[in-house]
Design a protein that fits this description.
The protein has about 475 residues and is of the alpha/beta class. The protein has 14 helices and 11 strands. The protein starts with a helix and ends in an 11-residue tail after the last helix. The protein binds pyridoxal-5'-phosphate (PLP).
């Protein structure tokens, strides 16, 4: 296959993409497959000779689409969304064509400079002060890891990078149990050790308070341990919990401990000023991660980390061997020095396209609709006999359950086997509950209203006690 062939096949791929999206509502959201079903259809040895693209394409159509869980399906209400707005897909096609590695400014000046400007646009869009700058990572996991490594090195006065961690002081980090497992992973990978991630107790609203944080830090100091960093939850994955952001930041600042905030999902909602009370005080954070690849439409992967002062992170992660120097341009920004990997994709182009193609108003109205529709779906479910709302909507996420765990599990299995919608589960204080999050870029009111209809249809067969007669 050469570039002229690619011209033809790209047109066919664009048509395929349009048809695929137009037909999504007719497909089951979750792949109805058993493990191994796809692998069994592939030969076990690689081809020795080139194959015609027609044959490759035919196999793709035969094997792959039916083997996918359709993340862009308008009735994908599972996990959190990974939205790909059409303008984002278009930008990614252009990025694919240029296929750059934007590791330093010189290797793709436009990639670096569009990224700098997009960070500025997004900081304004979510209401952060001008002082914030930042970078784009592949994932929130890597952004949080970068923040944890930076907080670790600050606490060690940058000795860990050189001397390693053995024999050093016992560093302590603080987060609530509502934070995502990527925080635990970062703590493990950064050599802190899971037992040194203090899970600070939350209040009745599942929020860490400044007082609880201050007490945990003080107890550690009194025991001779070294508080090194706080990770706050702004929109937890399980039920959308928010720590008392301003309160906790004030407590951390009073104790001289830096703060990273995980707003991977909820950060997108902060483009709507009315939701910013949920993270009031955020301007005091040292680092904030939010994923435009979740709710904003700039497709996976695109995770933004805002930094109040990038100096500490660059000192932690930056290396500039001779082969990465740009002669005579020592002052330029090389974004690989802000992140763990050296190689980096041109992720900012899709942000540029999305922000311009929909405008902040267009994006806000989608998010506001999702939240309003989630509340409506919650009310419809609450009116069904046997259904109990376990956690109330936080932005567009809430949970519900039936009287007992087996019945709730059976209901979830039936819903997902049916395929018209896709929901996932969590545990709330030990109780198994079904999560509903509304956030698909293309979903409409009717799609969301189907949730309660489907639950109602399946309810009778899942409840252990018969429903009372009307
Ligand atoms: N933080 C929160 C709140 C999340 O919900 C997730 C994933 O859903 C993550 C972090 C990890 O995100 P990523 O997949 O970008 O690493």
């Amino acid at each position: 296959m050469d570039h002229e062939d690619l011209r033809q096949w790209s047109k066919r791929a664009a048509d395929w993409a349009a048809d695929y999206h137009a037909g999504l509502r007719d497909r089951p959201v979750r792949a109805p497959l058993v493990p191994g079903a796809v692998a069994r259809q592939l030969p076990m040895t690689p081809p020795e000779s080139a194959e015609p693209m027609e044959a490759i394409w035919a196999d793709f159509e035969r094997i792959v689409p039916d083997g996918m869980t359709h993340w862009q399906h308008p009735r994908f209400f599972a996990y959190f969304p990974a939205n790909a707005a059409p303008a984002s897909m278009l930008a990614e096609q252009l990025v694919n064509a240029m296929a750059c590695n934007a590791l330093i400014w010189q290797t793709s000046p436009a990639a670096t400079e569009v990224e700098q400007v997009m960070i500025g646009w997004l900081a304004q869009a979510v209401g952060l002060p001008e002082a914030f700058t930042g970078t784009i990572h592949d994932s929130a996991t890597n952004a949080t890891l970068s923040a944890v490594l930076t907080m670790r090195e600050k606490a060690l006065d940058w000795r860990g990078l050189d001397e390693g961690l053995s024999g050093g002081p016992m560093l302590r980090f603080y987060a609530s149990a509502e934070t995502h497992s990527s925080v635990d992973k970062a703590i493990r990978v950064a050599g802190i050790g899971q037992r040194n991630l203090v899970k600070v107790a939350v209040d009745g609203d599942r929020a860490m308070t400044g007082a609880a944080l201050a007490a945990a830090i003080a107890a550690d100091r009194a025991a001779g341990l070294v508080p090194a960093g706080v990770i706050l939850c702004a929109g937890g994955t399980s039920v959308g919990a928010f720590d008392r952001i301003g309160d906790c930041i004030a407590a951390a600042q009073a104790a001289g401990v830096p703060v990273h905030v995980d707003a991977a999902w909820a950060g997108s909602a902060m483009i709507c000023p009315e939701f910013r009370t949920l993270w009031a005080g955020i301007e005091g954070a040292d680092s904030i991660v939010f994923n435009p690849h979740k709710w904003l439409g700039a497709q996976f992967d695109c995770s933004v980390q805002f930094l109040r002062d990038p100096g500490a992170q660059v000192r932690t992660l930056g290396l500039r061997p001779t082969y990465l120097e740009t002669a005579g341009r020592e002052e330029i920004v090389n974004f690989n020095e802000w992140t763990v990997p050296l190689g980096r994709r041109f992720r900012a182009l899709k942000l540029w396209f999305v922000l311009r193609a929909y405008g902040l108003e267009g994006l806000r109205s989608r998010i506001r609709n999702h939240i309003a529709w989630a509340i409506e779906a919650r009310d419809q479910l609450a009116a069904l006999p046997g259904v109990e709302i376990v956690t109330e909507p936080r932005l567009s996420l809430f949970t519900f359950a039936l009287e007992d765990e087996a019945a709730t599990e059976a209901l979830l299995a039936r819903i997902n086997d049916d395929g018209r919608i896709y929901l996932t589960q969590t545990r709330v204080d030990g109780r198994f509950a079904i999560r509903v999050q509304v956030g698909s870029f293309d979903c409409c009111h009717e799609d969301v209203m189907l949730i309660a209809k489907i639950v109602e249809e399946m309810l009778a067969s899942c409840l252990s006690k018969p429903l009372p007669l009307p």
